[in-house]
Design goal:
By secondary structure, the chain is of the alpha/beta class. It has 3 domains: about 10-170 and about 305-375, FAD/NAD(P)-binding domain (3-Layer(bba) Sandwich), CATH 3.50.50; about 180-300, FAD/NAD(P)-binding domain (3-Layer(bba) Sandwich), CATH 3.50.50.60; about 385-445, Enolase-like, domain 1, CATH 3.30.390.120. About 20% of the residues lie in helices and about 25% in strands.
């Protein structure tokens, strides 16, 4: 390992990833693998060596091309197809193209679900339902906005409209040695989950020791899920309390206590300074000198939007994502951004852009863009939609305020607490709820301002 873990789950994203990616913002839906140089396929789903019904894709009529077949890409394709039965649609993904619900990954161990259980439809089934061309395991090397085409190796794929829905990639806080490659993981898609679950299975029938680095939303959800699935979990983070981005300190302390009572070991306000293979263990050394042995390690230190492809093509980007207007149009004509990779309403004023990486904003964006792309320009609107954490040891719902509150009001007792953020005028601008107080989410959300009105 080359650097200590510094906890980007609790810090702003600091920059785009460094390599072009095309991939999944994680729910694989429609895609087709790239054919070899000099060949292309017009059939719905193909593998790299598949030449069935071959035709030259560069000669095909340009249509809508969507890069990324996660929840965003799939929702958009469905919306466009519902409005326009004839438009050519091509979807490109770096993964297998199987459809699944990404939010269910962090509750699958509790239910004993395998990757096969989580996959709801194959790429072929989705392609047939959408009447779309799917290209799986395909890498986009470059975008040529002037020629309106994508570079896929030696192939040039033209587009009339291009949507970048390539999601966000896990942040890598340090380098993992080859000796730990089969014991250290990050989970961002179904293929990642499959590999992680296989590692736990190889460990044996008994409970595995799982060290989770990062106590943000992903880390806390997997800690609860793996613990409920029978494993011995240690949660490590530099922040003093879990869910530090969502919960004020007092509520975070109560959540940490609930984790500890439930059987999750916590090492908060600690940093990992080394990670090494010792015999069959992955050994983590913390900044206070403590050494922890683990069978597997899960790194959950946040995500960064996949902006490198757009940046290389000259599109306006920021650490928060690809900058768009309220219609999700980027700085390049005919190119749009959607989902986790987009910073909405940030074009021309990046500091005011909104990056809402949750299901409701994603669905609203996909609906609006589907309308825009089929002739009804529609601005994106986000309501006051709170985040619901899957932490059954103590329920959590939060709507983080968009600005620093004048003060927090904390109501309730024990594990049932509501923290309400007020501005200087005394108006509710956010809230955090734990325990039975999560029942107040609807009433408080009605009083709070829209995320993007």
């Amino acid at each position: 390992m080359t650097a200590p873990v510094t906890g980007p789950e609790a810090a702003p994203v600091t920059g785009p990833e460094t390599a072009p990616v095309t991939g999944p913002d994680a729910i694989g839906s429609s895609s087709v693998t790239a054919p070899p140089a000099g060949a292309a396929s017009s059939c719905r789903v193909a593998a790299p060596a598949d030449t069935t019904e071959a035709s030259t894709s560069s000669n095909a009529a340009p249509g809508l091309v969507v890069v990324g077949t996660g929840m965003a890409g799939l929702a958009l394709a469905r919306g466009v197809r519902a409005r326009d039965p004839e438009r050519p649609i091509t979807l490109i993904t770096a993964d297998s193209g199987d459809e699944y619900a990404k939010p269910l990954l962090s509750s699958a161990f509790t239910k004993g679900q395998t990757a096969a259980d989580l996959s709801t439809r194959s790429a072929l089934e989705v392609a047939e339902a959408l009447d779309a061309r799917l290209r799986i395991h395909t890498r986009v090397d470059a975008i040529d906005p002037a020629a309106r085409c994508l570079h896929l190796g030696a192939e040039r794929l033209p587009y009339a409209q291009l949507v970048l829905a390539s999601g966000a990639a896990p942040y890598h806080p340090f380098t993992v040695s080859a000796a730990l490659a089969d014991r250290v993981f990050q989970i961002n898609d179904l293929d990642d989950y499959r590999r992680f679950r296989a590692a736990l299975t190889r460990h044996g029938p008994g409970p595995a020791r799982v060290a989770i680095i990062g106590a943000g939303l992903v880390g806390c959800e997997y800690a609860n899920d793996l613990h409920a699935g029978g494993h011995r979990v240690t949660l490590i983070a530099p922040e003093a309390t879990p869910l530090a981005r969502l919960l004020p300190t007092r509520l975070g302390e109560v959540l940490a206590a609930a984790f500890a009572r439930g059987g999750i070991t916590t090492r908060l306000a600690r940093e990992v300074i080394s990670l090494e293979a010792v015999s069959d263990d992955a050994v983590l050394t913390l900044d206070d000198g403590e050494r922890l042995g683990a069978d597997v390690v899960l790194i959950a230190t946040g995500l960064r939007p996949r902006t490198a492809l757009a940046d290389a093509a000259g599109l306006a980007v920021s650490p928060a994502g690809i900058l768009t207007d309220r219609y999700l149009a980027t700085s390049a004509p005919g190119i749009y951004a959607l989902g986790d990779v987009a910073c909405v309403d940030g074009l021309g004023a990046a500091e005011h852009g909104v990056s809402a990486r949750y299901v409701q904003p994603l669905q609203a964006s996909a609906r609006a863009l589907a309308a825009t792309l089929t002739g009804t320009p529609t601005e994106v609107i986000y309501g006051a939609w709170p985040v619901v954490a899957k932490t059954p040891l103590l329920p959590v719902v939060a709507l983080p305020p968009a600005e620093s509150p004048a003060h927090w009001r904390v109501e309730g007792e024990g594990e049932d607490l509501a923290a309400i953020a007020d501005n200087a005028a005394g108006k509710v601008i956010g809230f955090a709820l734990i325990g039975r107080c999560v029942r107040r989410k609807v009433a408080l959300a009605r009083a709070a301002p829209a995320l993007l009105g």
